[in-house]
Design a protein that fits this description.
The chain is an alpha+beta fold and 370 residues long. Helix content is 27%, strand content 27%. The protein has eleven helices and 15 strands. A four-stranded mixed β-sheet has the order 10-11-15-14. Strands 1-9-8 form a three-stranded mixed β-sheet. The protein has a two-stranded antiparallel ribbon with strand order 2-7. Helix 2 packs antiparallel against helix 3. The longest helix has 15 residues. The radius of gyration is 35 Å and the shape is elongated.
């Protein structure tokens, strides 16, 4: 069983102020924003929050001291008939409340999630990078440290719902009594009210502010994929659990390459003489320039494959390939000397071509259809 006093580092007879000071110190130490490279910080942050929510409330603390964690989760106050026979725990596990409609002790709500966009070039998406984004989100109020209370004051249990966060109404019908439950409007379903709200955040425990967030983009990410930054979204009202931040990756088009999964496609135009006689080409890759040997007789549309010069696999090992497709460019205009040489070549190969006197006619026809 988790010892909440040990988690907060306080004695079992610690005062409310000592518990609150310990929580604030640990929350700042283990907040995910302060520990972007520590994967265990988030779990520790949540554990500290759970311990504080249990010990800050006198009734929940009393039940924890007597019954442990299960007692702290049970509804504060007198036992319901379900608790007396052990049915309350079953209904808590499956339905989140007691068998007669009670929610149990309420607490700060979890904040909603938020979305942002990070813009990358192809190299950044392929090899991974650390990108900084600017977002405007609700953050914990510095004056009250997220509690919503004016410094030196404390929240009080809601006198309308008794700290449960909901109010129940009993109505009579032909079938008997019907019990309905609704969120408590007096405390916004939190179970507590703030007698003296913080003048900075007006009791909400948070204010809107711009933040710079470093996003660790893994190698191999593609356009449109989303990254989840747990606990780094909007702050929750009155010290609740912060939401997550979902970052959508946008990769700018690269004029050199088309991405095909983990492979890259590069289209290279070469002269028909290079295709016929062979050539050596300098090809750009993500790793630099490499030489590609084009053998004599290469046909238009032929694809060469450079192994391991593509994009690293996002959730695996290795890299894709760079595919180089050769397009043969046919000259649209020839000088008289070039025309004579090609006709001589065609004659040696026994290939029929347009006669010299017909060349002008076909040129005019081509211009008419363009």
């Amino acid at each position: 069983m988790t010892d909440y006093y040990e988690v907060l580092g306080v004695a079992r007879n610690a005062t409310d102020d000592e518990i609150k000071r310990a929580y604030r110190t640990l929350a700042r130490r283990y907040h995910p924003d302060s520990n972007p490279d520590d994967p265990d910080a988030e779990a520790r942050f949540k554990e500290v929050g759970q311990a504080y929510e249990t010990l800050r409330d006198p009734e929940r603390r009393r039940r924890y001291d007597v019954f442990g964690e299960d007692g702290a989760r049970a509804r504060a106050g007198a036992q319901s008939p379900g608790d007396a026979f052990g049915f309350g725990d079953l209904f808590d596990a499956f339905f989140g409340g007691d068998p007669f409609g009670g929610r149990g002790q309420a607490g700060p709500a979890r904040a909603p999630d938020a979305e942002a966009v990070v813009n990358l070039d192809l190299a950044g998406a392929a090899f991974g990078t650390t990108a900084t984004i600017e977002v405007r989100l609700p953050v914990a109020c510095e004056r009250c440290e997220g509690s919503g209370c004016e410094p030196g004051t404390h929240p009080a249990r809601c006198d309308v719902c008794g700290g449960t966060g909901e109010v129940r109404e009993v109505r009579r019908s032909i079938l008997g009594q019907i019990v309905t439950a609704a969120p408590c409007a007096a405390c916004s379903a939190t179970g507590s009210r703030i007698p003296t709200p913080c003048r900075e955040c007006r009791g909400d425990g948070r204010v809107r502010a711009s933040r710079s967030i470093d996003v660790e983009v893994p190698a191999g990410v593609d356009d449109g994929q989303r990254l989840r930054l747990s606990g780094r979204g909007p702050a929750a009202p009155r010290g609740g659990v912060p939401g997550d931040l979902y970052v959508t990756v946008r990769v700018a088009p690269d004029p050199r390459f088309e991405r095909l999964g983990d492979d890259l496609l590069h289209v290279r135009q070469i002269a028909f003489t290079q295709a016929a006689l062979g050539s050596r080409l300098d090809i750009e890759t993500l790793d630099g320039t490499e030489e590609l040997v084009v053998p004599a007789g290469t046909q238009p549309g032929h694809v060469f494959r450079l192994k391991g010069r593509g994009v690293p696999a996002l959730r695996g090992r290795g890299r894709g390939d760079l595919l180089v497709r050769v397009d043969v460019a046919v000259p649209e205009r020839l000088t008289d000397e070039e025309d004579e040489l090609l006709r001589s070549l065609a004659g040696m190969r026994g290939e029929e071509v347009t006669a010299q006197h017909e060349k002008g006619v076909f040129s005019r026809l081509r211009s008419a259809f363009q």
